[in-house]
Amino acid sequence: MIFSKTFGYALRGILYVAVKGENNGMIQLNEIAERLGVPRHFLGKVMKRIVKEGILNSLKGPYGGFSVNEVTLQTSLIKLVEITGETDKFDSCVLRLRKCNSKNPCPVHHQVLSLKQQWHLLLAGTTVGELIKKDNPAFIRSITAN
User: Fold this and answer.
1) DSSP for 51-75?
2) Rounded to an integer, what distance in angstroms lies between the CA atom of residue 105 and that of residue 35?
3) Residue 79 in 3-state DSSP?
4) pLDDT at 132
5) Mean pLDDT by 10 residues, the chain (146 residues)
6) What is the pLDDT of residue 146?
7) Burial track 101-125 (b if 16+ CB lie within 10 A, e otherwise)
8) What's this model's pTM, rounded to 2 decimal places?
């Protein structure tokens, strides 16, 4: 199961703000886009959705930007899947067949069903805070482009 760029931008944007804004600092969109190597305009739309869902705070103006709040580190990855509109990946056929379901399964439907359930549990049980909690500098470097 592969997620879209939108999910990746959302997760990486949140992780970047959480790591760089540890001392309640505001991180500007330009900095995030540049460091992540993603289009500023598209990232802006994604970050706006994240703020609207209450996962990050934002402040407009020259000293504004994005910051973490009490919800940020407790947000599960499945919540980001929902926000980015990717929950259909759990229901769609991995072979991309149109009429695949439990009554009319594709050749791998039953094997993949248990994998999808495990994947869902993993995403539901993993929070943003858990991703950055571990002392893993290589992981933190992996979210940025440079």
Assistant:
1) HHTTSEEEE-STT-EEEE-TTGGG-
2) 44
3) helix
4) 86
5) 85 93 84 95 97 96 92 96 86 85 90 90 94 73 74
6) 62
7) eeeebeeebeebeeeeeebbeebee
8) 0.87
Amino acid of residue 30:
N
> Distance between CA 51 and CA 49 in Å, rounded?
5
Residue with structure tokens 């439990």? Answer: 102
Tokens 């994947």, residue located:
119
From residue 33, alpha-carbon distances to 49, 103, 119 in Å are 16, 45, 29
3-state secondary structure the chain: CCCCHHHHHHHHHHHHHHHHCCCCCCECHHHHHHHHCCCHHHHHHHHHHHHHCCCEEEECCCCCEEEECCCHHHCEHHHHHHHCCCHHHHCCCCCCCCCCCCCCCCCCHHHHHHHHHHHHHHHHCCEHHHHHHCCCHHHHHHCCCC
